[in-house]
Amino acid sequence: MKVYVTTPIYYSSGKVHIGNSYTTIACDVFARFHRLSGNDTFYLTGMDEHGQKVEEAAGKLGKDPQAYVDEIAESTKALWKRLHISNDDFIRTSEKRHVKIVQEIFEQLQKQDDIYLGEYEGNYCVACESFFTKSQLNENDTCPDCGKPTTVVKEEGYFLKLKKYEQDLLNYIYENPDFIQPESRKNEVIAFIKQGLEDLCVSRTSFSWGVPVLSNPKHVVYVWIDALSNYLTALGYKTTNDEKYQKYWVNGDEVVHVVGKDILRFHAIYWPIMLMALKVPIKFKLYAHGWVLMKEGKMSKSKGNVIYPDDVISRYGVDPLRLYLVSEMPLGNDAIFTYERFVERYNTLLANDLGNLVSRTITMINKYFDGNVYKPKQNYFDVDESIEKMIEEVKEKYLEYFSNFQFQNGVNEIWKLISRANKYIDETTPWILAKDENKKEELNSVLYHLFEVLRVVAIMINPIMPSTSDIIFEELGVNKESQNIDSLQYGLTETSKVVEKPIVLFKRLKWEEEMNKYD
Prior knowledge:
The chain is α/β, with parallel strands linked by helices. The chain folds into 2 domains: 2-316, 3-Layer(aba) Sandwich (Rossmann fold), CATH 3.40.50.620; 339-497, Isoleucyl-tRNA Synthetase, Domain 1, CATH 1.10.730.10. The chain has helices spanning 18-36, 52-60, 65-82, 96-111, 166-175, 183-194, 223-228, 230-233, 243-250, 264-278, 309-316, 318-328, 339-369, 382-403, 407-428, 430-433, 440-461, 466-476, 511-516, and strands spanning 2-6, 10-11, 40-48, 89-92, 115-125, 130-132, 151-160, 180-181, 200-201, 203-204, 211-212, 220-221, 254-260, 284-289, 292-293, 335-336, 372-374, 495-497. Strands 1, 2, 3, 4, 8, 13 and 14 form a 7-stranded parallel β-sheet that branches. Strands 6-5-7-9 form a 4-stranded antiparallel β-sheet. A 3-stranded antiparallel β-sheet has the order 10-12-11. Helix 11 crosses helix 12 (318-328), helix 13 (339-369) packs across helix 15 and helix 17 runs antiparallel to helix 18.
């Protein structure tokens, strides 16, 4: 199976915040899950580097726009590396490989009469790089997306014929019910299309930082034809070296675009219409997620409530942040980030549940069997079978949820198994069995069941918490390279030798001490 997963390309307007990090982490979890499943997976992310906003920001700093976006690209790459993002490519819209193909796409659409030259007059939001009709604006002509003031713009521009493809797009959405997920977002898109589409302005003349239109260089290609094309240009579309395009797009089994709800319209309407006009197959599914909010609402620099991932990582580590974001954000809905909730989840899920299970299991195997564990000849307790059955049940749900981007539900299933294993220790009382020399087989059976739960859990959490997964495999004495989705079953281990002393995976946080940091 060939899988292609993408984040939106992020706008080069400054430091990456935790909302962008959620999207990138979620896509990384999806990509790692498919690699763990043995699927040929290509994961793309990158930067949208053109536009008036970037030109103005660079000018205020006295910098050339290219130098400005170069700095942001490098800092973003460094952050993704720190967050253990396993992307296969990082596309930038200022790269020659992208610019050349965008120019060719624009010229092709113009020759086909899908793009025409006209004049635009309307309200424009610099922050969102979007035009809006009067009926779309909020009170006082503010932007319906970000709430900032818009300005009236009148200039010559090229237009993409959206109305021409309106019915074709509606038909495609109806014929492909999984095209846009979740259902609530799909309904929003359908309602928007049914209001009637206006042709889209796709060039600007009031700034110069962008892709020049080859046939009319005073125009630069406006954001969406430039930005959306990245999903193809990164694969070598329209080049002599288009193997990736043929492999992951034309002949791919699953193409997934993951976007925030604020850019849903562009991906659900403009992008498929562009593909229809280019006669490129629409291969993708679109997953639209909500926003990461603060208690006061949206993050805002003016409010001073923006959360940056570097700050969280420095205090708590990478894996806890990755787990928190994917377990707290149900697909399609907003999620509120608070340090109170973060610390609570850290202590409950990681220090108490997972960390405790690893520590108790490794310690008992060392204490009672000198670190050795071996497969028992039979079960000795009624609850043994329930553990084995639960591994199988959780596996089936885990595969279903992770395949469909429902990571919150998937995490809940994993932790049900962890909680069950902790309860199993109390039910079988290994410390009492250890006192009876005649109960050695029963004791080994208990520890073997716990060992197998941890091995299975280490596989399941690998897409979310790769470092923690690696540590657990190492402590169990299991070769991580031998573990994959097919290994999600009880009883695969014949013998193993665990480490002599387990490390403390997650030290319990002191509530008052942590909260005092954020007063």
